[in-house]
Amino acid sequence: MSGDLEKLFEQARTCRLCAGVLPHGCRPVLRGSPSARLLIVGQAPGARVHASGIPWNDPSGDRLRQWLAMDRAAFYDENRIAIVPMGLCYPGTAPKGGDYPPRPECAPLWHPPLRAALTGVRLTLLVGSYAQAHYLGNRRQRTMTDTVAAWRDHLPEFLPLPHPSWRNTAWLKKNPWFDAELVPALRRRVTAALDG
């Protein structure tokens, strides 16, 4: 790992900016190296990821790996794949279920320098509406569904995806074009980014 990126990751992993407001404390979860060709930007670690310190180490990660047609060894090869969520720490669970949104302080602080230091990235997967809002801004569509359906408009730099949470199972059934059209294209684009 180059010196700049190594220092940034160390600083990010020891960040305590939100210590006073995170119900389960700070445990930033991210990974990558200068040689990473693919960047995965999700929402924030969930409870299982917070406990293990391994990103996407939960059922959502299983579904994401299935979309990518990738086993765990390939997915966790940080020389090829960087993982930096919008919120680096678990934000806690909301009273009505589901996790709170990523802390708003996190992405503006960490994403610009980390993204600048991940110089080998050829494709960034924007997983869920928080990542899409941050990276696409006013280029995103009115809804997450419309943004994902317009995925071609954001290539070659970005590819928007729905969140692979079990909560989106109904969405996937309602939008069969995602599995039929986008998942095969996703696999081709990821392979090209990693191997090209």
TrEMBL record:
Name the record gives this protein: Uracil-DNA glycosylase family protein
Signal sequence extent: none
Family matches, as PANTHER family: URACIL-DNA GLYCOSYLASE SUPERFAMILY PROTEIN (PTHR42160)
Species name: Azospirillum himalayense
Uracil-DNA glycosylase-like domain sequence ranges: 29-187
InterPro entries: HI_0220.2 (IPR047124), Uracil-DNA_glycosylase-like (IPR005122), Uracil-DNA_glycosylase-like_sf (IPR036895)
A matching Pfam family: UDG
